[in-house]
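Please check the following.

. . .
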Amino acid sequence: MKIFLTGATGYIGKRLLIQLLEEGHEVICSVRDRNRFSTKLFKNQQHLLTIIENDFLDEHTLQNIPEEIDVAYYLIHSMSSDDGDFSKKETLSALNFKKALEKTNVRQVIFLTGIINTERLSKHLQSRKQVEEALQSEKYALTSLRAGIIVGSGSASFEIIRDLVEKLPVMIAPKWLRTRCQPIAIRNVIQFLVGVLGKTFTFNKNYDIAGTDILSYREMLLQYAEARHLKRRIYLVPVMTPRFSSYWLYFLTSTSYPLAKNLVDSMKVDVIAKENHLAEQLGIQLFSYKEAIAMAFDKIKQNDVLSSWYDSFSGPFHARNVWQYLEVPSKGCFKDIRQMKVNDEAAATERIFSIGGKTGWYYADFLWRMRGFLDRLFGGVGIRRGRRNLNHLEAGDSVDFWRVLYADKGEKRLLLFAEMKVPGEAWLEFKIKDGILHQEATFRPLGLSGRLYWYSVLPFHGLIFNGMLKKLAGK
């Protein structure tokens, strides 16, 4: 089949794409930033893959969608948007998608959304419901798959649970931890998404998809602790406002504040799947919550996390068009330039491409963590995001509070752009040429505050950057 896939660089889309290509489908990937899409995973399937750039909030960018399409996947959402009213963006995006797809020969659109089983919907689920209604058309059949909490390596829900349980032996938590939900393993989600492909009995129908367990969020935390052989105690506080709950999630986990706020809003409502026979019809074996945790950690242990919600761009960060910063400026900038001969180029390259995350920054890690803590206090991403893979990087990946703009081991070059809160723009570049490691930090200040910021951190640069350079060079 010829398939049109939106959200191909996202958490679900990236995993779905791998499965579709393995099954021999021809896939047209719709992405907002071609620079973020890496084809390294698909070397043997290049002939099945086409990449086009679209922004469904701007219908003028949708003219390049091919007419010959059999099935389309709609995997676009704005839950982590900083915009207060993300639902307007979600509805506009869906309407533009529908209008564009009605001009093609598509027979089926598959939409992954959230479980809706109550009249009292959270803002997020209300928006998802509106999107589902906006996607309905007389020109094609809509198949809606409604999921609750998705559990898998790199998923937002899994990483938040992981942060809470592994860092806090005792939790003073809000009362919404009593809310019940029905989590589903990411592997089952992909099986459902592929399973309904072209199945006419699913046309113009919606299905709740979920795992085998109905659990409260408190039970999910405790079962995770049990699976990790950790003793944890959770005490629920009856009085905790939504705003305070959002800050509680934001400061204790690696989530962004907008996502924390929307998650808290969603977690007040039970999310239980309505019974159906879709799993049996498609021959899918549903996994329990504990099995989903075990599979997630199996991927983590193998250093084989295919995608992570951390790597999604926030709205403002995407709006900046960060790829314009691929060329590091030289005028009007402060620079810290250092170089050193390396003992072993291959080993130094591996160290460079393993930087950040669990590996750390090779020198004065406590100062990096302090900078991350300060960034968190001012509403930034902080340093807790880590990185998806321990020794592999590609454009678009997050590395703590940096974003990868360019990564090529063959060229021995890595370029990072700061996603932290700074009064200006910052780059950090590493490259090895003729046995010399070049390390360059660039800062383009914004006004007087930017200049004051640079001079305030300058004393630390001599310590941190020199120590880091020595370690990377193998000295």
